[in-house]
Amino acid sequence: MAKNLEISILLDFYADLLTDKQKEFARLYYNEDLSLAEIAEMEDITRQGVRDALKRAEHILTNMEQTLGVAKNFMEIREKLADIVRCAQEIKQMDTGGAAYAGRIIQDAQELLDKY
Question: Would you state the torsion angle of the CA atoms of residues 87, 10, 1, 49, taken in this order, to the nearest 10 degrees?
């Protein structure tokens, strides 16, 4: 997974553990794709100040994920739910009497996927 995407995902799970400035800088840099210079200009600080705040934020986010693994577990659950939906769709298409049951599985799993 690309580092920027990884940090962006970790922000979804652990952003509240960052300071307000770290959270805002990370959001602007990773989610809004602003450069260090653009953020520095907006915040009236040095580019190095932005970089330092981002590095501290990255460190906090990656350490929390290594310790807790919430994002990894979440992604694994989503992948397994998507597999369940695909398998149930195949069963439903076979129409061997399990179509109604497969339809219910598809609906339940899809609701979970949509929610998360």
Answer: 170
Q: Where in the chain is the domain with CATH 1.10.10.10?
A: 3-68
The string of pLDDT tens digits covering residues 19-35 is 999 999 999 999 999 99
User: Cα angle vertex 69, ends 2, 39, to 5°?
Assistant: 45
CA dihedral 15, 13, 8, 20 (to 10 degrees): -10
The CATH class that applies to domain 3-68 reads mainly alpha
Give the span between the Cα atoms of 99 and 6, in whole angstroms: 38
Average pLDDT value for residue range 51-59: 97
Of 51, 3, 11, the residue nearest 27 (C-alpha): 11
pTM here is 0.73
